[in-house]
Structure formats: structure tokens, C-alpha cells
Design brief:
The protein is an all-alpha fold and about 150 residues long. Helix content is about 60%, strand content about 5%. A two-stranded antiparallel sheet has the order 1-2.
């Protein structure tokens, strides 16, 4: 009986430890999901404050960072989302059950980040630049399987 409990305990510990050791794809997915959440946070800040320090904000040598235009920040956020989307691997693991939003489902994260890009592009302050958004919007609709008529 003691051996059974010990063997089961060691198997559980080994399984738990193997989940904690990220492989290269898993770690890449985890970093991409962190980047997506950072973009979401910065988007909420820009939507609230519009112009704020962004590009020089984390330069600790610069005590008075320059405030950046909201459109420039949005362009940077879109680039960051594109990079995060490019590095996500749909079949690989991410945070697993520790992911409280989508339970580790990377496909749902891909859809979320695409929707986040749509929200950034749909910002009222950016609507003047719709010509830039049209090719991206048609790619998004194709990805979700929507037929344009």
C-alpha cells in the first residue's frame, strides 16, 4: 500500500514538474500571450488618456519622457500584436489550466488578439485613416470565414 501511494505521488510530482518546464513552443506561446495582455493594457491607457509617455516611458535615465501621440502608440501596439500573432503556435501548449481567461486554448487567444486589433483600428480618433484598415479588415473577415457580398 505504501509503495502504491509513493509511486502515485512521484508520478503526480513528475507530471506537475513536466508541466512547469516549458518547451520552446510553449515558452514562445506564453511570451506571446503576455505580450497580448500588455497590448490590451496599453490600449486601455491610450483610450483613457489619449496622449501619454509610451516610447520613453521605461527609460529610467530620462526623468521627463516626451508624451507621444495616440496614433503613434496605436501603430506600435498593432506592430506588437502582429509579432505576437506570428509567434503563436495553435497546436502547442501555453499556460494550460493556469490561464484563467481561455484555459490555455491558443486558438481562442489568436481570435482575441485579432479582435483586439480590430478594436484598436476602430478607435474614433483613428477613423480618418480607413484606407489603411481596409486590407487588414478583409484578411480578418477571411480568417473568421465571413463572406463579403
Amino acid at each position: 500500500m505504501l509503495c502504491t501511494r509513493t509511486c502515485w505521488g512521484s508520478a503526480w510530482i513528475e507530471e506537475t514538474l513536466s508541466e512547469m518546464r516549458p518547451g520552446p513552443r510553449r515558452k514562445q506561446n506564453q511570451l506571446a500571450l503576455i505580450e497580448i495582455m500588455e497590448v490590451l493594457t496599453f490600449m486601455k491607457l491610450v483610450n483613457t488618456i489619449r496622449e501619454r509617455a509610451h516610447f520613453q516611458a521605461l527609460d529610467f535615465e530620462n526623468v521627463y519622457p516626451v508624451y507621444d501621440d495616440a496614433n503613434a502608440i496605436y501603430q506600435d501596439l498593432i506592430k506588437r500584436l502582429d509579432a505576437a500573432l506570428a509567434s503563436l503556435t495553435a497546436g502547442a501548449a501555453s499556460f494550460g489550466q493556469s490561464d484563467l481567461i481561455y484555459g490555455g486554448d491558443v486558438v481562442k487567444w489568436i481570435k482575441f488578439s485579432s479582435t483586439l486589433k480590430l478594436k484598436i483600428r476602430d478607435d474614433p480618433g483613428r477613423r480618418a485613416n480607413q484606407a489603411q484598415a481596409k486590407p487588414w479588415l478583409s484578411r480578418l473577415l477571411t480568417m473568421f470565414g465571413v463572406q463579403r457580398g
